[in-house]
Amino acid sequence: MANIFHSIFRAFSPSLWGRGGAARSDRAGVGPRIGFGYDVHRLVEGRPLWLGGILIPHTHGLLGHSDADVLIHAICDALLGAANLRDIGFQFPDTDEAYRGIDSKILLRRTADLLHRRGYRVGNIDATVCAEHPKLNPHIEEMKAVLAPLMDITTDDVSLKATTTERLGFTGREEGISAYAVALIEKTE
Predict the structure, then answer these.
(1) Cα gap 171→38, rounded to integer Å
(2) pLDDT at residue 189, rounded to an integer
(3) Based on the domain organization, do 99 and 8 belong to the same domain?
(4) Which residues of 49-67 are buried (b: 16+ CB within 10 A; e: fewer)?
(5) What are the angstrom distances between the C-alpha of 176 and each of 8, 60, 107, 149?
(6) Are 126 and 37 found together in one domain?
(7) For 20-47, what is each residue's pLDDT tens digit?
(8) Co-location of 92 and 146 in the same domain
(9) Quick one: which of 71, 146, 148, 160 has the most CB atoms within 10 Å?
């Protein structure tokens, strides 16, 4: 039975597979690449709430080594993953005091620079922030206007959404905020 599925798969994907059934090495780094990112931070009193590179009025902020901008961190992870550059913790470790309290917009710009040095450009970003409060929809356009130039793309290339978890889980209990992001990158050469 496994041979039947293997044969069907090979028949419908001849450009990806050679005669021996192994992935073709001549495709390495060619075409668009997709990455996925996820981040979560705890909400605490006494910290500002930074999301999408802007300060959001709220009674609580996110706890983290940097400014804890969960949306930017998820976007960085998606971009780094697409370029096979691991993740934000590897590139900008929280054990390095140079990153204590750093503005996450700097991390996003450095991430875009890492991609450029590897011969990639950002195609587009699609991200979702999960939070019960504050309501984020009024801030989406400002976030897009801040984030797009950091990645050398237009606001039309940045899709941001906000949702709740219908009061379920740690987000629903307002213990934290999470974000998910997908990034498309393309070779520039």
Answers:
(1) 14
(2) 73
(3) no
(4) bbbbbbebebebbbebbbb
(5) 45, 10, 21, 28
(6) yes
(7) 455 555 556 568 999 999 999 999 999 9
(8) yes
(9) 71
pLDDT per position as a tens digit, 80-104: 999 999 999 999 999 999 999 999 9
Distance CA 180, CA 127 (A): 5
Over residues 116-144, the mean pLDDT reads: 97
Sheet holding 120-130, edge to edge: 60-62, 33-45, 176-187, 120-130, 158-163
Close Cβ partners of 69 (under 8 Å, ≥ 6 residues apart): 50, 51, 52, 53, 62, 104, 105
Which residue range(s) make up the domain with 43?
32-187
Tokens of 117: 């040095």
Secondary structure class of 110 (helix, strand, coil)? helix
Neighbours of 17 (CB within 10 A): 16
The structure tokens 């797009």 sit at: 148
154 token code pair: 């237009």
Q: How far apart are the C-alpha atoms of 160 and 143, rounded to whole Å?
A: 8
Rg, C-alpha atoms of the chain? 19
Task: Based on the fold, state whether residues 24 and 73 are members of the same structural domain.
Answer: no
45 token code pair = 């009193």
